[in-house]
Amino acid sequence: MSPLRDAMGIDGAEDEPQEDDREEDGRPGDEGAEPSSGDGEVTVGGREEPEVHEVRARPPRRRRRGKGRHGTRRRGPEEPKRDSRTRRLYIIAIALITIVPVVGVAYFFWGPPGSIQKIDLLARPYADPDTGVSGMAIAAFIDAGKPSAFSGKGDLKISLDGTEVYSGQLDISESRAMRNLPLDQFAVGNGDYRVQFSFQGVTTSTFFTTNEIIERLNFTAFNITHITNATLVPDGNARLGYTVTFLSLADITQLATGRDGLQVEVFKNGAPENRFTDTIGTKTQVNKNFPVGGNGNYTLKATFTNSKVKPGSKYHKVEAEARDPYTNTSFVLVSIPPTAVPKTDKTTAQWKLADGGATFRFDALGSVAYEGATIVNYTWDFGDGYGDDSPVTTHTYTMPPVAGQPPLKYVVTLAVVDSNQQSVFEQLELTVTV
Questions:
Q1: How many CA atoms lie within 13 A of 69 on its CB side?
Q2: Cβ–Cβ < 8 Å for 377, 388
Q3: Where are the domains of the chain?
Q4: Are both 118-210 and 216-334 of the same fold?
């Protein structure tokens, strides 16, 4: 059955309440109406009329949104619009949930670099076996807390004991900076170097230690002629020898390379006489001997050119003057020993009673002193317990030989001393017969 509608067509019309209801509501009935006869008719003015019911419109009930009586959702006129907006909101929310993380990840990996969190700086020694160059290998790693690709130039400073010895820049690519810095670009000696790297306002530092730099020379020179007692040097010649040992200030032996240089200058009585430029190679010591031009005081000066320090720095040129380890002097005395030349008028003589024995004549005037020196002493030893100190002398052997026995043999020795206090001796053999 369709719902009642009033004269205006409004839903919800209901039958007029009964009389008792009207009375309860305080609304009186129609005047002039007579009571019903019970057959459904009303008598008005003595005339019977059909009973008419009054219909009154009631406002539509306001119902809560949601499910109706039979479990189905009731929709009002605005419901389709609300559903459309809700779907759009759902789509937007899902899109945000999906796209935002993707965009965030993409921004994290491929977006612009973030702020620098830290810089890891490493400094380690390196050596190139092909060139002999050694130095410091530097590596800087920039951390932004995300994958990034910093590029540009970073500032590099190196100092030793608070004094700056190097200032430059490192090229940065892919958030890294690497470089091999040879010692001769920053080193001024052995020690702990502070290495500082700065980029975009962030600074970090580390230390690099080197102890391979040559800072001192142990330089000795000596007279080979004197040491060998002239056995290896021809008469009238002399040779000097020298040894250069490469050290640090801590007296630790250091290794020189083929890139280093060594020059030794030789002075005789203060005047330059010779100069040697040695090819060092890879070694800790250089030894050499050479002839000199006669007697005199020799001084030697060594200059080592250091390839492992900055040019112009303290240890770029290391100098030293030689000392004689045998005399502990700053010079080497070269005094070429004289040559002793003993002569006799004969080497064999017959013993004669009339002569008192066998007589020989001796001459030492053929002996030679060198480089302006003079012979100041002659000493003869005739081998029979007698001697003489004259350059020219005679001597008679008075002991007769025994008949039937071998002849007597005598060894005569001549020793000469020059004005440089250099001495030498020479011998000859004599025979006395019956």
A1: 0
A2: no
A3: 118-210, 216-334, 343-433
A4: yes
**Is the whole-model pTM more than 0.70?**
no
Q: Does domain 118-210 have CATH number 2.60.40.10?
A: yes
Contact 222, 324 (CB under 8 A): yes
What digits encode the pLDDT tens for the residues 151-181? 999 999 999 999 999 999 999 999 999 999 9
Spatial strand order in the sheet of 358-363: 343-344, 358-363, 392-397
Token pair listed for 29: 């009935």
Under 8 Å between Cβ of 209 and 192: yes
Question: What are the Cα distances from residue 283, in Å, to 189, 245, 246, 432?
Answer: 19, 9, 9, 62
Q: Is-contact 113 145, C-beta < 8 A? A: no
Is the CATH number of domain 216-334 2.60.40? yes
How far apart (Å, rounded) are the C-alpha atoms in residues 195 and 204?
8
Which residue shows structure tokens 């040129």?
317
Domain range 343-433, its CATH number among 1.10.10.10, 2.60.40.10, 2.30.110.10, 3.40.640.10:
2.60.40.10
Q: Give 328-385 pLDDT, tens digit per residue.
A: 999 998 877 788 999 999 999 999 999 999 999 999 999 998 877 899 999 999 999 9
Place of tokens 């539509």: 60
